[in-house]
Amino acid sequence: MTQEEKDTLWEEHRPYIEVLSQVNNSYVLVNEWGVGPLFISSNYDTVFDYIPGFKSKTLIEKKVFIDSSIHPDDWPLVMDFRKRGFEYIYGLPFEERKDYKHVLEFRVKVHDKEYVRLLLQYHLIEITESNDYVLL
After folding, report:
1. Residue ranges with strand state E in the chain
2. How many angstroms separate the CA atoms of 106 and 10, rounded?
3. Could you report the per-residue pLDDT of 101-132, keeping only the tens digit for each?
4. What is the pTM of this model?
5. Which helix (H) or strand (E) holds 90?
């Protein structure tokens, strides 16, 4: 898949993602599998109570993800859930893969001191049959 085709697919989804990102007390992150974030809603920093723009900028520049903030007791459960969830999705017929989403709740550290509960939802937005382009 060419970069132009990828850009076209992303631009088709972008207006809906931007509307979704306006929901209070939540954030939206769209990730191109293996590449990094394409979109981080402006309320990401508010949800995690960081200096506006600082953390989301770090995410994009350094590809630092929420994984580094997961509570140590929750880490193995989150990793196992992700592994089994994606194994399930990829085990489905191709045309059914976008019909499911993963929902997971775990603790993440904010302010480098306290933990809050995070409800995380993964949904495949776009996937090619060859799996060379995956947006979630």
Report:
1. 29-32, 36-40, 101-110, 114-123, 126-127, 134-135
2. 29
3. 888 899 988 766 788 888 888 888 888 777 76
4. 0.71
5. helix 75-91
What distance in Å separates the CA atoms of residue 53 and residue 111, rounded to the nearest whole number?
A: 15
Give the Cα-Cα-Cα angle 104, 113, 72 (nearest 5 degrees): 45
For the segment 72-95, what is each residue's pLDDT rounded down to a tens digit?
999 999 999 989 988 998 898 988
Rounded to the nearest angstrom, the gap between the alpha carbon of residue 104 and the centroid of all alpha carbons in its chain is 12
Asked if 30 contacts 136 with a C-beta cutoff of 8 angstroms, the reply is yes
Is-contact 28 17, C-beta < 8 A? yes
CA angle at residue 49 from 46 to 50, to 5 degrees?
Answer: 95
104 by DSSP, 3-state: which? Answer: strand
Q: Which two tokens stand for residue 84?
A: 């089994």
